[in-house]
Amino acid sequence: MTFYVENETETAYPFDWEQTVKDVAQAVLKVEGCPWQVQVNVLLTDNEGIREFNRQYRQIDRETDVLSFPNLEYDRPGEFRIPQGLEADYFDPDSGEMILGDIILSADRIAAQAEEYGHSLRRELAFLVAHSMLHLCGYDHMEPEEAAVMEQKQEQILTSLGITRETA
After folding, report:
1. What are phi and psi of 104, to 5 degrees?
2. What is the pTM of this model?
3. What is the pLDDT of residue 86?
4. Helix (H, G, I), strand (E, B) or coil at 15
5. How far is Cα 138 from Cα 81, in angstroms, rounded to an integer?
6. Whose CA is closest to 34, among 94, 85, 95, 97?
7. Whole-angstrom Cα distance, residue 65 to residue 58?
8. In this structure, are residues 5 and 108 in contact, taking their beta carbons and an 8 Å threshold?
9. pLDDT band at 16 (very low <50, low <70, confident <90, very high)
10. How is 57-106 classified by DSSP, letter by letter?
11. 69, burial (CB in 10 Å: exposed 0-12, middle 13-18, buried 19+)
12. How far apart are CA 38 and CA 21, in angstroms?
């Protein structure tokens, strides 16, 4: 798995945030049974930066905590099928890895939400990465049933890593 990680803020965390991102992403891919080695691009920005991405790509003019841009289209969540003849659209020709997608995180929102929910910065970052990775794997939360599936998977993944509200 290859991660291209960029921090365009001055934010420094009291833990290895890049390793947390990688650990959570790998746990999601393991739970989902992804059959490919993948590439994921991760950008840590501030509220204004994520607001601009939200405005540009979703036509929503406000900040958010995380944005997910999957590269695959899914018939069903977690089915990593590549349409025959379109492999070049989904795989990096140099590495052979599937390009899963992009994650953009707001460092400002991570801090605010960690405080609001009463847990650590690491727990909030890990939660948002798990949430975003599930989007990159085809999950959504537009319907209550979909939201319940995502919530269960997020908690399962974070618990498996020992990143709980109490310990992280």
Report:
1. -125, 125
2. 0.94
3. 87
4. coil
5. 11
6. 97
7. 14
8. no
9. very high
10. HH---S--SEEEEESS--SSTT-----TT-HHHHB-TTT--EEEEEEEEE
11. middle
12. 14
